Amino acid sequence: MTDKDALVLFMPSGKRGRFPVGMPVLEAARQLGVYVESVCGGRATCGRCQVSVQEGNFAKHKIVSANDHLSPIGPKEQRYAEVRDLPDGRRLSCSAQILGDLVIDVPQDTVINAQVVRKDSDGRVIERNAAVHMCYVEVEEPDMHKPLGDLDRLKTAITNDWKYENLDVDFHLISQVQSILRKGEWKVTAAIYKDEENGDRPRIIALYPGLKNEAYGIACDIGSTTIAMHLSSLLSGRTVASAGTSNPQIRFGEDLMSRVSYVMMNPDGREGMTNAVREALNGLIDKVCADGGISRQDILDAVFVGNPIMHHLFLGIDPTELGGAPFALAVSGAVHLKSSEVGLPMNAGTRVYMLPCIAGHVGADAAAATLTEGPHRQDEMMLLVDIGTNAEIVLGNRRRVVAASSPTGPAFEGAEISSGQRAAPGAIERVRIDPVTLEPRYRVIGIEPWSDEPGFAEAAADIRVTGICGSGIIEVVAEMFLAGIISEDGVVDGTLAARSPRTLQTGRTFSYLLQDGEPRITVTQNDVRAIQLAKAALYAGVKLLMDKQGIDHVDRIGLAGAFGTFIDPMYAMVLGLIPDCPLDKVKAVGNAAGTGARMALLNRGYRREIEETVSKIEKIETALESKFQEHFVFAMALPNKVDTFPELAKVVTLPERKATSDDGGEGGGRRRRRNRE
Amino acid sequence: MTDKDALVLFMPSGKRGRFPVGMPVLEAARQLGVYVESVCGGRATCGRCQVSVQEGNFAKHKIVSANDHLSPIGPKEQRYAEVRDLPDGRRLSCSAQILGDLVIDVPQDTVINAQVVRKDSDGRVIERNAAVHMCYVEVEEPDMHKPLGDLDRLKTAITNDWKYENLDVDFHLISQVQSILRKGEWKVTAAIYKDEENGDRPRIIALYPGLKNEAYGIACDIGSTTIAMHLSSLLSGRTVASAGTSNPQIRFGEDLMSRVSYVMMNPDGREGMTNAVREALNGLIDKVCADGGISRQDILDAVFVGNPIMHHLFLGIDPTELGGAPFALAVSGAVHLKSSEVGLPMNAGTRVYMLPCIAGHVGADAAAATLTEGPHRQDEMMLLVDIGTNAEIVLGNRRRVVAASSPTGPAFEGAEISSGQRAAPGAIERVRIDPVTLEPRYRVIGIEPWSDEPGFAEAAADIRVTGICGSGIIEVVAEMFLAGIISEDGVVDGTLAARSPRTLQTGRTFSYLLQDGEPRITVTQNDVRAIQLAKAALYAGVKLLMDKQGIDHVDRIGLAGAFGTFIDPMYAMVLGLIPDCPLDKVKAVGNAAGTGARMALLNRGYRREIEETVSKIEKIETALESKFQEHFVFAMALPNKVDTFPELAKVVTLPERKATSDDGGEGGGRRRRRNRE
Question: Would residue B600 be called left, alpha or beta, if left means φ above 0 and alpha means ψ between -120 and 50 degrees?
Answer without folding.
Answer: alpha
